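Field: sequence (string)
Field: structure_tokens (string)

Example rows 1 and 2, in order.
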Amino acid sequence: MNAVADTFPRLLQEHAALRPGRTAMREKHLGIWQSWTWAEVAQTVEALACGLHELGLRRGEHLAIVGDNRPRLYWCMAAAQCLGAVAVPLYQDAVAAEMAYVLQDAEIRIAVVEDQEQVDKLLELQSQCPALSCILFDDPRGLRNYGHSALRPLDALVASGAAFAAAHPGLLTAEIAQGSPADVAVMLYTSGTTGRPKGVCQTHGSFIAAARGDAGFDHFTPQDELLSYLPMAWVGDHLFSYAMALTVGFCVSCPESGETVSTDLREIGPTFYFAPPRVFENLLTQVTIRMQDAGRFKRALFGFFMGVARRVGARIMDGRAASVSAGDRMLYALGDLLVYGPLRNVLGMSRLRLAYTGGAAIGPDLFDFYRSIGINLKQLYGQTETCVYVCKQPSGDVKLETVGKPLPGVTIRIADNGEVLVRSPGLLSAYYKRPDATAESLDAEGWFHTGDAGYFDADGHLRIIDRAKDVGRLLNGTLFAPQYIENKLKFFPFIKEAVAFGDGRASCCVFLNIDVAAVGDWAERRHLAYGGYTDLAGKPEVYELLGQCVEKVNRDLAADPALGGSQIRRFLVLHKELDPDDDELTRTRKVRRGFVAEKYAILVEALYSELEQQHVQTEVRFEDGRRGVVAADLRLCTAKCFTLAGERAA
């Protein structure tokens, strides 16, 4: 790449000049894939930028972007950056009240949205956000009879912008020339697990440095392809679908909808893939359910060759085939022909060169499954404040319990209290309008305080234990790491969410959420009738099933000298799913533990009593805005605990 291409608009111009006819983006619309070349993208971005300039968008101002992954929404990001403005993507599934905070905090005047759903939310908020004077929409369906003066279709903006560009040929070039790598390119809001979300200001230079470092580490080229389906407001999507695509020059494809991602993945056959563990869990759950429905011969074939894969697949993946016997290599090759290859094809991963997961711990069985069938799944580590550029597992040196080694240009220090401190080229410039939070997270020596507790193992891999602030102690002094325990529980396909309590208490107790698909399938095979989530979650058979999962976690904890004393003593299965709409989870599905503890205080106290049952009523908010109440009598169960490893030895 040319050294001058140090901002996203300049990178776009460079690709349009170097590879004008190569496909830059695709989108599936009405069942048909539409494609745009780099030259076409650059032309449309110019028209959008000039149209936004006509609307008065100027350097340093903020442009909100709300919707599913759509090419023109990404291009509006680039258009805003051409003018020196800052893109502010919002989570498309956020309710209006959550959007109001970001729109107010970021002082949004112009917003670009995908469709009628998002238009309705923003129109509802106009009285709370008086500065919001213009709403541009991409999809006109359902909006024909909307007569609101703030509304304008993107098609009209493109047309007027193209005419403006023709009349002022040097304007955009001059605007792009004023841009600097130190300019803020995007503002991404944190998930807000413990308070109000903060706007993380990231510059062109930080994201481009992270993208180039990643590209060099794993050898990305313009021939790579990616399916973009994760929320545009999430830092992982911004790194891979936007920053890296513009840095490297590969093609990004957008699915038709969230429901068609699996089908679209198979049709595109990307060369790399990024997903949080829950997505990999859902894919495996679907495979498991399908195999249980298959005939006896297919089940036997699958079971035999998966046994071979679990035994030798990971070693072959890591380039250690020499340690595998000739017989097993032959069996694995046959399994690849009959089972693993077709399975990768069904998953849409037949061309995958790399797959990443991050954002949460991944279960050992899940991790081993994908690697054993020939998918180079690796873990990475980072935050919104670091452009997700801190650690990544090197190919051939993958360890389940770690997040890898520091990436090029990254320095990590472990503080005296165990907190992970980071210096990275991808560090934020500041939190928007929050100098106090900036000073708290980014110290005078340039170290970013991640808030995570961890340590390096003997091979130089970083291992993350928990959030530093969440690590506590039981009354007897035993170390208590709630996220570590929660993740161990969520490794089981039947458990979707878990919330652990114990800091300052005599023992550890947990709330559990069942995975309706997995437990529902399990119940149907046992002819166990149920009438919905609450009914299924309260079945004695389901409690017994989850009790077995808790028992296995306690057995594992008992073998850990540091955490063995924090085995789970009591548990219950919640009568409803934890939901972002009820403020129990963030939009990135992280548990707001403090809020949950306060909301369900009666259940927490019941777990620490000798009660065997507790009645609870909970207000819930439905997708259409209506509110209702879910009530149930919950069972409180005592789990089996085990003697600690040290005590046995003594």
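Row 2 begins here:
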Amino acid sequence: MQSALSHPVARVCVDVHLPHLDRPFDYLVPPELSSQAQPGVRVRVRFAGRLVQGFVLSRNQASTHRLQPIERVFSDLPVLTPQIARLCREVADRYAGTMAEVVKAAVPPRHARAENAARARDDHPASAASPVWSATDDPWAAYTGGDGLLKRLAAPTNTRVVWSPRPDEDPAERITDMVTAALPRGPVVIVAPNAREVNRIHCALKSRFDARRICLLTADQGPQARYSAFVHALTGRCDIVVGTRAAAFAPVDSPAALLCWEDVDESLVDPQRPGWHAREVMALRAGMNDATSLVVGGFARSVETQGWVEAGWAVSLTPTRPVIRTWAPRVKADPTESTAAASHARIRDRVFPVVRAAIAAGPVLVQVPRRGYVPNLVCQNCREPARCPTCAGPLTLASAQAQPHCSWCRSDPVTVAAGTAVAAGTAYSCRNCGSQQLRAAAVGVDRTAEELTRSFPGVPIVSSSGDHMVHQVDDTPAVVIATPGSEPDAPGGYTAVVLLDAASMASRPGLRSSEGTLRRWMYAANKARPGSSVIIAASPTLGLVQAFLRWDSAWWAARDLAERSELHLPPTVRSATIEAGTETLLGVVEQLQPIDHPSWRFIGPIPLEDQRSRLLLSAPRAQGHAFVSAIKEVAAEHSKSTKLQSLQVRVDPYHWGVDT
């Protein structure tokens, strides 16, 4: 412990998010607070005339500045450990953000009652013995190179693995295997995209480990429960942490292994500045310790992790082809189904007998990409998207009896024309051709359920979507209609899986659409019983459908990565987006272009809404450090000047372009 006499200066990371103030500031430690104001504790200080919170990073002997005293120490618990502080600094530099922004995500808000209760408890299960992995009936033998994975995790090495699970197995069980192998060396941190996946992994872990050894860190826990779990991990009362994206900063010392599940999911990207991805945070954290292993897994492989494999930074772990041929579901691509999106029959004649036979043996899963009844309406004559005459928003239909309404302003286009009220019953008129007839451009869960009720009378229909999620169904005959990600679990698996509107999903624009679509298909197919039929409503000639038919997401990721390399698109280049006014962005281009990097590319400014524009920038990965540093320097210059408009910067954004 450092005293006020020998180390009277505290270096503090203040909670200020301006780029030009992204540095620690020195404060005087009053003698009465010296024993508490140790590195890692949360304090309150005066900054620019107002009181703000911060964290003590270190205690020093002297400072060259005239210092103000620390106003208050909230608790003597060092919640920001040196390792996490270093990680926050690296993440901030990686994404051109400020350390205060990252620390805010890494350390949850203090809850005094939870902290006091957690510190008073004495339930440390560290003496509990860990289960020992047995090679008898080893499921990892089905993987290329899988026989040595658990041995490498058990050894003090920095193994880096990109893992694609078998089509028939529960990934939570394999994650538990990896935890079993690595835990004798130290703590293990597991990150999953949502609370549902976290709970599934948690249940698998509890089947082998004492529940007191496991901490849950999720956003939906509530402030008290989340902070209590954070303190348990911080004080060493648990050695397995499983949670959503912020768990990547779990306060455990020198973790033996970091496991990231389903890194393709957008939920692992922090929506707040600077927009870090949990996968990249865990990769940076693994690089800080030579004995920390990293495993990134998912049904669909991301182009980023495929780049790791091709660069030799990580190894690929996939099932052998004979295992895939044996255990993969029987997938059939039916292009005739892709024309049924807006028709009266959601399941066509060739598929109907397969579904009817499967229902007799148990539940059948039907995946529909969209929720609601009819989420998009178009003109019957010219197929022009139907727009609200008030705000130009898209028109939707809530039910068969409802009138079309705007999904933005909720106005009724039948009684509103060009912003003027007219007599009720007036038909909507297309702006392009004048037609008054509408048709569905896409069909949602509710209408699909309505139509399948007529197709399968007497069979229970279960709907599950984000608005009303069903977590589990039994093994009795039923038709389960679900949006991607909300598919209920069936204890014995589904007797058949039908993927409707797959052709429209495969043709969506955007760099991220293909890997996300493939993940949704494979996630649903994984819920089918071994040997069951999976019918996908798309042409088998599509490359994405071929990857699904072969259960080979690594092949698709390699192909996608090669195409992006030719086109100089992320992640083969470092990228960034900057949003501001058009004139401001033109000035940004002038500031960056004089730098001697002719390979940097500038696209824009591209006009957006609210008189703002977006600038797209990219640079070769070899120049990534200089690229990010230059962007951060420009952002800092704008933030410290009241005459310049502030910039919204995102480095390596999840979405690339304008239509995000």
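free_text_note (row 2): Residues 497 and 534 are 5 Å apart (CA to CA).
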